[in-house]
Fold these 2 entries.
Entry 1:
Amino acid sequence: MRLLIVEDDGEASEAMARGLGEAGHDCQTAENGEVGLVSARRGRFDVLIVDRMMPKLDGVAMVERLRKEGDQTPVLFLSALGEINHRVEGLRAGGDDYLVKPYAFAELIARVEALARRRETGSVQTLLRVGDLEMDLIGREVRRAGQEIDLQPREFQLLEFLMRHAGQSVTRTMLLEQVWEYHFDPQTNVIDVHISRLRSKIDKGFDHPMLQTVRGAGYRLDA
Amino acid sequence: MRLPRLVRTTPFRLTLLFLALFAAAAFAFLGYIYIATAGEAARAADAAISREAHSLEDVYVHRGGFTALNEAVIERSSSTRGFLYLVMDAKGDPVSGSIGKSPVGNLTRDVEWTSFGLTETDFDGAKVRRPARGMEERLPGGEILFVGADVGEAQGYVVKIVNALWGAAALVIVLGLAGGVFVARDVSRNMAAMTGVINAARMGDLGARANLRGAGDELDELAAGLNDMLERLERSIAGLRHAGDAIAHDLRSPLTRLRARMEAALIEAEAGRGDPVGALRQALDDADGVLKTFGAVLAIARLEAAANAPDQSKFDPAAVAAGVAELYEPVSEEKGLDFAAELASGLSLRGNRDFIAQAIANLLDNAVKYTPPGGAVMLRVRRRASGDVEISVTDTGPGVPEDDRERVVGRFVRLENSRNAPGVGLGLSLVAAVAHAHGGRLELDEGPGIFDGKGPGLRAALVLPAG
């Protein structure tokens, strides 16, 4: 994947580029919004990682301008400002996701990959399929190897998110934000219990477990 | 040049302005009176002179010409009618009359009016000059007649009026200035007290308060506003200071631990022993813990510092509670707890939905964490008799001894028997801060009591005003 990192803190930017490079992505960096805007217009990137607060042109203004020009490249905002209104402001400006500093690297990679994937599957799907697992979004039905699986509404949403991001790591925070729409960090690992319930429904009785736990990151649904 | 302090005060300046306006109005009014009275007196004198002249003209035209006129003038001069007469021939030489010389030099027009001075000798022999007015006209035969009058009486009246006007003006100015000084001093004294309070606050004494005079006027209002502002400022600064202390206190120990671990790992790694990957993993966990604590303390401090929770909206508390219950129900079941929710519908709250959800999550988190397997957790949303909305979580855990209830709401307080449960001890502090930011409170009570050696449990209630 080609990524553009727009971040005024050189050290943070370099560490990010190195880490993402190791994860197999091709990174370019820009040290402020103006340079970032020029680079973003020129290069064809899969995801832009933009710091919210920067000298000259700040991240929000930069993304607003790109969106006005019709550029729809997914944007992940990074910010030290984590309050709800800041998040809303970033998303309203055209950001696709918002990650509060400091963050775990696994979180960054998972979110960047999720954004890139979202772009690939832009068309409206009514049927999701991962391996022998099928989800009918209209009939609200889930089948594995033709066998119907009964899911609670929230479990259905959780599985839908995992299926849409099949093959990628998704973090607990991503699940909490995207499936439950909560932006706080529960002290107990409530997500783990929901995942294990879901796992018992989709993997039980099958030789090949699909729902994997990724150490230090979260979960991944594999075909 | 710097004006004296009193003169620079706003009330004094306002007084001066009003004084100027008032004086202008008074002068206009008095000027009108002057014109009306003094002008009227002059007109009356002129009319009298005209009438006298006409009657003499009448004598001249209808009763025997110049001779009769002379006789009439001589007769009238000796009477007490108070007029001055002079009859002259066509060349202007005096023929008869009470004055020797016409005050009008050369008569060019038919009728000419003049004001002149009349010199008289009073009883003491001093010469007095009195104002007089007169008219001179040429008679049909070419002779000249002058009739005048002493207007000293009328003029004196006018002078009196003018003097009275000046006196009144002086009085207005003196009284106005005195009033201005009085008002300025009174207001100034009160303002100075408030300025003193502001200066004290500026120098760091946030405990300073302005006195209310009890007059209920706008100065009292201002003082009350000032006091309220200082009160809030003091509270929020105290909150921030407390948060700073708390952060310093609670981050220092994990940071110290983290540092020690890394140092030990480095020494081992340098010696080619140990498990550097494991040490780094441990360090990362420690750092995450520190960041979590930091985030929680910051959130609490922000809530405490803000008078009201940000981004408020109207919502149904039962719906929010149901969402959080759904999140926690599996954890609770997993631990072997009986989880129940009793959510009254039709209630309405006004506030920050996310913060309320987080507060409920924290209460459930605590309940699930501290209640031993086999116990029960109950989430309830209901309307109290007072109209407030109560969101409560009751568990059958060990509870909190009455003496400790106030303390556990404080930051970083963890009771002895909870040392090995995960968490940083900020859960209830956050709930209390959320309650406070919504104008509500957090109440801690005993749970259902002791059953089978378990309990007495804890009932934590978030009580919020309905919105």
Entry 2:
Amino acid sequence: MTAAGSIARTPDAKPASKSEPNTAPKSVRRRNAGLGLVAWLVGILFVLPVLWMALTSLHSETDAATNPPSLAAPLTLDGYREFFGAGGGPSPWFSLANSLTASVVSTLFVLLLALPAAYALSIRPVRKWTDVLFFFLSTKMLPVVAGLLPIYLFAKNTGMLDNIWLLVILYTSMNLPIAVWMMQSFLAEVPTALIEAAQIDGAKLPVILTRVVAPIAMPGIAATSLICFIFSWNEMLFARVLTGVIAQTAPVFLTGFITSQGLFLAKVCAASLVISLPVLAAGFAAQDKLVQGLSLGAVK
Amino acid sequence: MTDTPTATTTSSGIQAPQTQRPAQPAPSARLRAWVTRAPLLPALVFLIIVTQLPMVATLVISVFDWNALYPEARTFSGLANYGEVLGDPELRKSVFTTILLTVTVVLVSLVLGMLLALLLDRRFKGRGVVRTMLIAPFLLVPVAAALLWKHVLYNPEYGLFNGALHWIFGDGAAQPDWVAEMPLGAVEASLVWQWTPFMMLILLAGLQSRPAEAVEAARIDGASAWQVFRYITLPHLRRYLELGALLGTVYIVQNFDAVFTITSGGLGTANLPYTIYQTFYQGHEYGLASAAGVLVVIGSIVIATLALRVVSSLFNEEARS
């Protein structure tokens, strides 16, 4: 590409510089800068509601509920104190702990089940491995709401209602197909020649897995875990129907804010931000692999 | 689908020693096949039990007249529930709402996502920062995002939208009650805000895999920016657009959180997941809810088949390259 491009370019272009902006003509550079400015404006517009939510969470309830909005009102942490139960409301700590348990444990289960499966679908593929892969994917396409009632009845009859382990199992099954797809595509990136070379050198399977496969596939495995964590943390329908008081998760706690309760805007904003924080952190950490995960490994 | 690999491998495992290689003893080949298959089995068995069994149970419940408040009155009713579901104007409306909601959100966020991807597909200062800002809406917990729109933006008295109108037009500014005046639009806008980043990410990946030589060659031949877009970029993006549309459809057809939070299914915004939830959770009509669930599954299979075809064509292309 650089070779073909340089032919058309003016002779005074520096041959040493390979990066696009230096070799591009001035008019293209200027247009890029202009459109870059537009991109900045649109980006700010998109993130504005989130920033506004952050600002509102730091205002007092009376300042949060003015019209027109008060931008320069004094900042306070009262909204956060209220959210964490200072005003006598229900404490969110239980639901945060439940969400953490359900998300982390289900993600560990997913890894435990998906890693061997991905191995059998990429490094040492079984016959018709693409059919198996697509079966995994097809389970993800069926609406969860259709299986909800039998799961509810099962839980009710076995005393599993309001039990966090039921959510752990369901979240594991919810994320397993995505994880198998992602891991398969990450493990497939491990060069076969490398594995064969290790085999010729007499390395046994555990050594190959830990010394050859793991180092190459690790970033992908980490991104997969983060995406599974996000989906489990976000889930609300199962949690709403299958949990009550003891196993309530953070999104279910948030549904308590659906009906207005007088002046409570700062508290809602604080709650929404705190509960979204793990997802924001995990999402930004997995940013580079986010597309591959969300498109089920179809886009790299 | 699952039976296929097992069935073929087993049958060939039995036939192979008899017809082709009589020297090879059958048990060892079969054993080896099972050893390769073993790592796959836990995941497969787990997934079939947790996701497929409930679907079968739904199918069974759907042919019973079963209201949880009158458990003794449970009787086999054949396809009566399906007749009732298809004849119920409220359920028919929720089918229509689901289609309208899904199509609007997917199309609008696809177009916006494409514009954003085209904007970001160039070098400028702070490109990474802009990308991060654009992804932020997608990384809010869905319920939190819906609460943000419902209370912080839409609230007729102190929401940001009406506050901004007040700022711009002064005291006489219109102060609409957004959710009451355009309930479905209110739900759609919040979903478009959350899903545009998703579309942008997929299309940006598509743009970056576009062959640079073709674009360069077209530019040298004097093609305008529009011609490059129309004849090179768009055809290349077609598959990525399809993928974004179909994955978006799969997720948004199932949307429950936004409808539940912003309107609680009121004002004509109840989509199928919400209606099914309500039929069984509040109405206790187990048979009816299951019949509706089966119909949703049938609809989803149509979408899923299309989606799987697109994913598989991208997948095969990746494998070949």
